[in-house]
Amino acid sequence: MLFRPNPASGVPIYLQLMEQVKHSIATGALHPGEQLPGIRPLAEQLVINPNTVAKAYRELEHEGVIELRQGAGAFVSANGPARKLTDRMRTAQAIVVAAIDKLRERGLTDEQIRRLVEAHLAGLDTTGGQRG
Amino acid sequence: MKSRMLWYKAWLDTRWRFLIGLVVLALAAAGCVLAYPRVMQVIAAVGNSDEAVSAIAGSSPVARENIALTLHAAATYRGYIWSQLFHNELPQLWCLFAIVIGSGGILSQASRGEGLFTLSLPISRQQLVMSRVGIALIELLALAMVPALLLPLLSPAVHQTYSLRDAAVHALFLFGGGTVFFSAAFALATVFEQFWLPPLIMLAIAAVITFARAVAPDLARYSVAPILSAEGYFRGSGWPWPGLLAMLALSAGFLALAMRNVTRRDF
Amino acid sequence: MADTVIETTALRRSYGPVDAVRGLDLHVTRGAICGFLGRNGAGKTTTMKMLLGMTRPTAGSAHVFGLDAADPSDSVTIRARTAFVGDDKPLYETMRVSELIRFTASFFPGWQRELEDTYVRRFELPLGREVKKLSRGMRTKLALTLALCRGAELLILDEPTSGLDPAAAEDVLQALVSQVARAGTTVFFSSHQLAEVEQIADEIVIIDRGRTIVNGPLEDVRERFRRIEVVFANEAPAHAFTAPGVVRVIRSGRVLTVIASANHQQIVNDARALLPLSTDVVALTLKDIFLESILTEEP
Predict the structure, then answer these.
(1) For residue B2, which residues of chain C lie inside 8 Å, CB to CB?
(2) In this structure, are residues C45 and C19 in contact, taking their beta carbons and an 8 Å threshold?
(3) Backbone φ, ψ for residue B163 (5° rounding)
(4) Touching C: which chains, 3+ CB pairs < 8 A?
(5) How many CB atoms lie within 10 A of CB B13?
(6) pTM tops 0.90
(7) Number of domains in chain B
(8) Which CATH class is domain C4-220?
(9) pLDDT by residue (tens digit) across C7-31?
């Protein structure tokens, strides 16, 4: 279910892991209330740092996507806010997918697209101007 | 912290040298005993005069001395054994193996990587040195005792008897007086990485000493040979205790030096 | 500050006129996997040897578990709780594999027999074979088994995957990750395989010419380093960036490239004051971070 993160992609591994979990929930591969792999087995399976897995799980809990039950493990949240969050993410993902497809149609490379996104996030795309 | 396995490892590292030495020295002792009848025949045929000695030994002073000694001492079986073995063969062979066992220690191992493995274990440098010295001393004691104890065992085969007391005393003086050779080689091995350097250096020192003796015969007084062979005990003229103690002290000094070198060394 | 397992202060080691380590400060947090990066000859192996008491520092101090690495009896305690695998994988060549395992086990009361059986099986260690007859990959796996089974709190590894094929290397990394997950062991390993470091390390230390250049959580380091590309309509101006954190500035035609190790927002503001056509900010890979860090060190 969970694929190996790409350490050289520029995105921190724990973020990639979070994305994968959310994606799995969004696509229905993980159901609400279902148990996630333990930190140790997951780290061993993906051959990544267990602290990284722990961090991803903590952040997911913080966002309400999963619950960490003492001694029992990590479980997908069964309640509403989490579902709403993933719903929102799902919609957002659709927007991003559409935009990227459109830019690709226009002949932009993935690298160019990535730079544009990073630049916008850093607030740099207004030449010499103030951050909006 | 238990270091029993360190001693085992030291044994593994020296066992072939020890076993070969054991065989060589045992054969020397046995050979000497078993050759007695033949040697007595030769002596009887030749006689015990100066002309006879010259005829056999030629002009070499060392050979003359040896032959004269043998002829004189061979008056008794005890004397024969002393002049052949404890005065000659055994000290030479034993000291050779003492040097060989003392060479090739932690330094030559370190350059091969094995030493780094040892150093990464939770042991102190003292434990390391003591395990190697301990095993070596046990081996060297055996190398002195075994050939000596063969004498009372095998002598009946040539219709002679050899006293157990004599064997034990000679073995102990050989060991006690001779450990200095081991210790010197061991100390040199804590300075030089190449395992062949300590024996080479000691050979050079021996050559220098021999030369010095030839030039200044007075120095012969300070020889270690009478201690190793317990000559005074043999001749009944007094046990060579001072010499033995001096050699033991020197040996301890070399070992202390070796210990200091190893505890201070950076690998 | 979190529990520090390894700490060095102004550590120095000279061999005659040559300084292998010159004033090195580093720290490694308990439970972290710390990648130790540097060029060949930067002082990595020397530093490790000092941590284990094989070599004494010329100056400065090194502490492991709060104990003084230069004190002989403290050092024995350190080595009772630490496992070291040197880059040549030093082992006793003439022993058989099973003999060497038993030999090593005798020094550690906390030796884990079940773990040993697991690794012998998983790595397919040939118990009856002499160590000198093992392939390189097997040697590494044996050395690693000896390190992992002793119940050590800290693993110090000098290039654990060097010379290994990708599958064997992955086995090694997985064993390390498993150990950290199971026992909270701290791992301090040097490596030239930056991809591996990015994969499993959460802290890094970069040293060059005997000094620390970078030391801290890997994520923080990756957050801080940026490449800023400033494109101008005409020839790029020769601007002296005053903001701290500028590692290198490259002028090429109409493009000004700034490598920043910190503070990139301020540097960007600086750059925008020059009225460029566009400004791009890109994250750097660990390889770039490494290369940029060591390039700027003055001799």
Answers:
(1) 106-107
(2) no
(3) -75, 140
(4) A, B
(5) 20
(6) no
(7) 1
(8) alpha beta
(9) 999 999 998 888 889 999 999 999 9
